[in-house]
Amino acid sequence: MADHIAPDPAADREVAAPRLCFLAADTEEAQAALAEFGSRYGNTPLAEADAVVALGGDGFMLETLHRGLGPAPLLPLPVYGVNRGSVGFLLNDYSDGDLPSRVARAQKVHLHPLRMVATRTNGERVEALAINEVSLLRQSRQAAKLRILVDGVERLPELNCDGALVSTPAGSTAYNFSAHGPIIPLEANVLALTPISVFRPRRWRGALLSHTARIRFEILESPKRPVSAVADSFEVREVATVEVAEDRSVSQTLLFDPEFNLEERILKEQFMP
């Protein structure tokens, strides 16, 4: 989920160059960009920086953002991503222009993650945060059987499938879209509940839920049909129940060039051929 902040009317006025801390993925392209930007602008220590510049792909961007989540974030700074990977949906285009000026004039988007509370079959309770989605996936050749409740009300007594996921608007163009879920505008205040390879009920294609909804999955026949739960890239195996809800007490700030911000990217995705 995200809160979009409109551009500042005074954005065209001269602004001070922000102090930037560069972080880079362990790839040739990202490391080359790190060396280039570091030599041109310096690399401010994290504790003294005004913003973080993440150099890499969407996976590295998510990894960087996860460092800024939680009650005592390791990275409590806005993050400006520069695409040195493949898709780069959460990142800005690479350019050899004035990077500090681009960061200073960037628009802000506050992302609120999903909080996953998974209880394993042995009783262990595990929590994790997800910026894109929480996914439940079958662990074996057997299809998963899931009971789904929303705000304490049973909505599906049994979903026979490869899995299911709950997606934020920011994550709706990722795994959710690949599973034929809807693309969600940032300001829609909804979450997508999307099944993965449904067997029964055949015609169920998912649901759009309020961002305040609390979704509970109960795994049926779990010894025979084990299921794992994944919050972005953090996996918990052999779960018995999984609860998912947006956590508005936690946020992370992304920075985007005004001409192609995240809201525009999500809208554009809906008109892609």
Give the proportion of residues in helices. Answer: 10-25%
Separation, N- and C-terminal Cα atoms = 26 Å
| Overall radius of gyration | 20 Å
Reported for the largest beta sheet, the result is: 11 strands, antiparallel
The CATH architecture of the largest domain would be: Sandwich
Could you name the CATH topology of the largest domain? Tumour Suppressor Smad4
Query: Would you report the number of β strands?
Result: 17
- Tally of individual domains: 2
Report a brief summary of the structure.
This protein has five helices and 17 strands. By secondary structure, the protein is an alpha+beta fold. The chain folds into two domains: 2-112 and 250-269, Rossmann fold (3-Layer(aba) Sandwich), CATH 3.40.50; 114-246, Tumour Suppressor Smad4, CATH 2.60.200.
Explain what you see.
With 273 residues, the chain is of the alpha+beta class. The protein folds into two domains: 2-112 and 250-269, 3-Layer(aba) Sandwich (Rossmann fold); 114-246, Probable inorganic polyphosphate/atp-NAD kinase, domain 2 (Tumour Suppressor Smad4, Sandwich), CATH 2.60.200.30. The protein has helices at 28-41, 58-66, 99-104, 175-178, 262-269, and strands spanning 2-4, 20-24, 51-56, 79-83, 107-111, 114-120, 125-130, 133-138, 144-150, 153-167, 190-200, 207-210, 214-220, 227-231, 234-236, 239-246, 252-256. The longest helix is centred in the N-terminal third of the chain and has 14 residues, at 28-41. The radius of gyration is 20 Å and the shape is elongated.
